[in-house]
């Protein structure tokens, strides 16, 4: 099974890119982030014509997550991250896809830090860690996947000295991610490539893509049942060079 994650940075603006990539790579399951569209504006018909069932949690202008599945049953489990009934940002969606529980997530950016947005990000990590603990106690294998808005180590960021005060690299956020992983999750891409530079995001500014000045902020965390099932993974870097593309690249893994 091939599972992918892709922060599309506006699903309607990037729809031709998304459909081209789906046709080229044929992933079985896809988690999308930053739809930037309310539910009624999601291009459901185009995605279905590409061969995918889909569920989504949209929001006007901002956020938004979706899970796509090809030739697999998909059943929604949870919409919105538990732990704060007043948080209505569309950043979290869980579904049973075949025999897997897939949680698609889009962590807050948190800038400027310190400040209210950074505090919200840390609270979100606390809630995610709590939910992740509950998921680990289930018998169902789980994949926590999406845009975590964190570079876990210096290897995950171009020129880390320039990012010390950024909300994506501050020690509080890296510690929050570390604590999450240490519950028993496997960072799939880093397991496959323990010492390699792999970036999943390239800013639109300062010619970042051509300079290979990127960040690794899109991650797959696998529950213990899936650790030995991981056989391959990588990024579709060429997609970042396509016309009118997202600032993220698709990231994927294969499970046997």
Please characterize this protein's 3D structure.
By secondary structure, the protein is of the alpha+beta class. It has a single domain (2-255), classed as 4-Layer Sandwich (Deoxyribonuclease I, Chain A). It has helices at 15-25, 44-49, 116-136, 171-181, 188-192, 208-211, and strands at residues 2-7, 29-33, 53-57, 65-69, 74-79, 92-97, 100-106, 142-147, 186-187, 218-222, 230-235, 251-255. The chain has a 6-stranded mixed sheet with strand order 3-4-2-1-12-11. Strands 5-6-7-8-10-9 form a 6-stranded mixed sheet. The longest helix has 21 residues, at 116-136. The chain starts with a strand and ends with a strand.
Q: Which helices and strands appear, and what pairs or packs with what?
A:
Elements: E1 2-7, H1 15-25, E2 29-33, H2 44-49, E3 53-57, E4 65-69, E5 74-79, E6 92-97, E7 100-106, H3 116-136, E8 142-147, H4 171-181, E9 186-187, H5 188-192, H6 208-211, E10 218-222, E11 230-235, E12 251-255
Parallel strand pairs: 1-2, 7-8
Antiparallel strand pairs: 1-12, 2-4, 3-4, 5-6, 6-7, 8-10, 9-10, 11-12
Helix pairs in contact: 3-4
């Amino acid at each position: 099974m091939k599972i992918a994650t892709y922060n599309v940075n506006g699903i309607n603006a990037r729809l031709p890119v998304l459909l081209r990539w789906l046709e080229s790579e044929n992933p079985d399951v896809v988690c999308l982030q930053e739809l930037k569209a309310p539910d009624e504006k999601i291009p459901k018909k185009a995605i279905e014509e590409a061969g995918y069932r889909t569920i989504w949690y949209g929001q006007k202008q901002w956020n938004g997550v979706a899970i796509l599945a090809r030739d697999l049953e998909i059943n929604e489990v949870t919409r919105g991250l538990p732990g704060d009934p007043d948080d209505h940002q569309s950043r979290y969606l869980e579904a049973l896809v075949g025999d897997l529980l897939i949680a698609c997530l889009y962590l807050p950016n948190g800038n400027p830090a310190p400040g209210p947005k950074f505090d919200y990000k840390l609270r979100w990590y606390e809630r995610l860690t709590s939910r992740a603990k509950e998921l680990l106690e289930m018998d169902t294998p789980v994949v926590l996947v999406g845009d975590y808005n964190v570079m876990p180590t210096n290897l995950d960021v171009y020129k880390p000295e320039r990012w010390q005060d950024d909300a994506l690299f501050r020690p509080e956020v890296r510690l929050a991610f570390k604590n999450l992983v240490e519950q028993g999750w496997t960072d799939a891409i880093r397991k496959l490539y323990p010492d390699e530079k792999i970036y999943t995001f390239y800013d639109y500014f300062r010619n970042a893509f051509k300079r290979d000045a990127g960040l690794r902020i899109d991650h797959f965390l696998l529950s213990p049942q899936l650790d030995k099932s991981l056989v391959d993974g990588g990024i579709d870097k060429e997609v970042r060079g396509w016309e009118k593309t997202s600032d993220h690249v698709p990231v994927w893994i294969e499970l046997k």
